[in-house]
Amino acid sequence: MPATDSTSSPATHTSFGRSLLSLRHRDHQIHHAPPTPDHNTTHASSSAAAEIDAFQHHAADLLLDLLPSGSSAGPVPEILSLAWTRHLLDSFLVCLEEFRSLLFASPSLARPPLDRLLSDFFDRAVKALDLCNALRDGLDLLRQWRKHLAIAAAALSPHADDPSAPLGQAQIRRARKALTDLTILMLDDKDTSVGAGHRNRSFGLGSSTARGGGGDAQARGHHRRSSSGGSSGGSGSGSHFRSLSWSVSRSWSASRQLQAIGGNLPVPRAHDVAATGGLASAVYTMGSVLFVVAWALVAAIPCQDRGLQAHFAAPRSFPWAGPVTALYERVLEESKKKDRKHSCGLLKEIHQVERCSRQLMEITDAAQFPLDEEKDAEVREAALELVQVCETLKDGLDPLERQVREMFHRIVRTRTEILDSLSRPHTTE
């Protein structure tokens, strides 16, 4: 999808108070008389400004808690692990809910320039819906890989009747066959950027759920669900398709989608901040959080034509600028590591799958049977790590998919409710 056209010049927020005074001064020049002070209105404006400021600082804290060196809430899961990715999605959902509450508390949603800023934000948010579908395809891909790991782990497990018996040639061959199939699948998905078919699966709600159709992603989701008889759960029939069958179109690109979400993200101008009572800053904050979270998810999970070329730099005047920049740079640093540079995704568990498979293949290559005690111990140790990775994937993939689904539906719901509010007639005070 092409990026939304939106241009604005960067501006800081130090002149917020002076901008408000200048607006009052212009009002005085037009009406030749100062407005009558309204204590209730002034108090409400101060309260709204405080809530917007609190939202931005809370977003900063949530992002900071994703960094191992910056968390004040206790131990942080290892970056780009399944647990960390779930933590990332939790943070996004909290931010989106607080943002939604701020918008509904505002009486001026349909007034310029806030209506324009919200329209731009939701245009970008709709582009994240296809990303959610592609991410679920990537999680299903990991399930397929896990099946091959489980076969290898079962083949190398100790015999029930005699756990101390050396591993036999048939066990090693079966494990190597499963790991070879896995390696072929992973290489196929790493080197090919487009799919061979379609899974006919989407998080999309029916077209009646979202105002105005809810974007191309939702329309496609409705069509797919109708043709496939329902959306899949944690581990549905999608795993019977070959790994590179994506629910998005063949020409779809995660890299281009990220560019569309974050490209030319309009930094609010000082007079827009003043005219919206600070809500312009909240809209920009939510747009930035949406982009960084989507970018980190694409970095972690296999996606069609994934790429991390999209660049983002937030003005330092925002309280969350430091944490979001640190998070962006930390993920980028992981992507440049030699052992992860050419991986299907930066997820820690993907790296473990690749390493365990390679290690077991090397240990068992040209093995002599029966295995001597030292070689048998090496194989069992490597197999134990493989079993642990299998269990981590088994326990972590379904909860993560539920969170991606929740991200999809929360974006749709928020967009629908706000656009419905914008479409209602409003009176000018």
TrEMBL record:
List GO terms (cellular component aspect). Answer: membrane
InterPro entries from the xrefs? ROH1-like (IPR008511)
Superkingdom classification of source: Eukaryota
User: Per UniProt, which keywords does this protein have?
Assistant: Membrane, Transmembrane, Transmembrane helix
In residue numbers, the region (Disordered) covers 198-238
The membrane-topology field of this record reads: Single-pass membrane protein
Q: Where in the cell is it found?
A: Membrane
Q: Which family does it belong to?
A: Belongs to the ROH1 family.
Task: Provide the protein name.
Answer: R3H domain-containing protein
Q: Which lineage is the organism of this entry classified under, starting from the top rank?
A: Eukaryota, Viridiplantae, Streptophyta, Embryophyta, Tracheophyta
